[in-house]
Amino acid sequence: MQVTLANWRSSPFNRWAFHHVRELIPSADIANDPRRIRQLPIEKRQLDLDAFLTETDTDGMAVLHRGKLVFEHYANGMTDATPHILMSVSKSMLGLLVGELGLDTERQVTEIVPELRHLLDMRAGIAWDENYLATSGPIVEYRKATGWNPPGDEVSDLHSFYANLTQSDGPHGGRFHYTSPNSDLLGWVIERATGARYADLMSELVWKPAGAERSGYITVDRLGAPRCAGGMCVTLRDLARVGQWVMEQGKTERFEREGDPNAWAAGDMAPYFPGLPMRYRSKWYVMDGKAPLAFGVGIHGQNLFVDRINDLVIAKLSSQAMPMDAARIALTLRGVSELRKLFA
């Protein structure tokens, strides 16, 4: 079976493509520092997860408890040295980078982006339909612009694409409205504000401090603009290292305090988490409770879960057939809930 730009996100081609993205799409390195690798002591535990891993199409899963690697699993040809695409967990990485940059998220940055805060919390009032199954329309043109789909008759790029986003569907600071291009736009703003490449900033301010063992990478368009919304590719262990770093730095505590539950409840992602006490802050999801859970979510089953109360990190990379599969999202959350009980 030949994997191409036309089919790489479709099953069964994604089982190979999701950890060979660099062979399909241009990319930029996110360098690690070999002198600052976070050690992960191995203390494996017997966990009966075979059915769960199969049912959620898992390519790789790692569990850290108190900084020790207690469980690790790989499938579909993936290994501990294989970078796997994070999809929208890349947005959570973007949120971390913005926090490290210390930007004033309330001030006006450029005439293109009125308020950074609203972009971070998915509350910018831009008309957009995040329909992953669409075969035409703005989201398809967006993918062409980012180099994720075969180019059309008119060759595009990410920055030029924003000329199409002119309609509003509500005020800034309103309901949660999932709009991936806003995250890429925020990456553009970061590059303009700092004068540095996004990949280099991610390397210096997140990747190296987290103690990554290997370099990651991020997909770029034909002119080098990064796909901040979904193009970051990293190894499973390094994703888990980021979760451990986030927890140790106390970053999830801020996510737990902030974010507007009412904006979340009125938004377009709440139906995928029915009945759960949720909020969204700095591109991280938070499930409220005595032991809050902060996590990143990416289509086709990408996740990073951080439970600071139980000192638990769960990194999960998958190649699910459907972009947003409500049944598998629910199954993943149930599985994580059971794991949290084991380590409580």
Summarize the entry for a quick read.
The protein has 344 residues and is an alpha+beta fold.
Describe, in plain words, how this protein is organized in 3D.
It contains twelve helices and eleven strands. The chain has helices at 14-17, 50-55, 89-101, 116-120, 138-146, 158-161, 180-194, 198-207, 236-248, 251-257, 261-265, 326-342; strands at 27-30, 58-65, 68-74, 84-85, 216-219, 232-234, 278-281, 284-287, 293-298, 302-307, 312-318. The strands form two sheets. It has a seven-stranded antiparallel β-sheet with strand order 3-2-11-10-9-8-7. Strand 7 and strand 8 form a beta hairpin. The termini are far apart.
**Rg calculated over all Cα atoms:** 19 Å
Total DSSP helices: 12
Following the backbone from N to C, one meets helices and strands in this order, namely: HEHEEEHHHHHHEEHHHEEEEEH
Shape: globular
Return the average pLDDT rounded to an integer: 88
Helix fraction by DSSP (H/I, runs of at least 4): 25-40%
Major β-sheet profile:
7 strands, antiparallel
Number of strands: 11
Query: What is the end-to-end distance?
Result: 45 Å
Which percent range describes the beta-strand content?
15-25%
Instruction: Show unreliable segments.
Output: 111-120
> Main sheet: which strands, in order across?
3-2-11-10-9-8-7
Derived structural class: alpha+beta
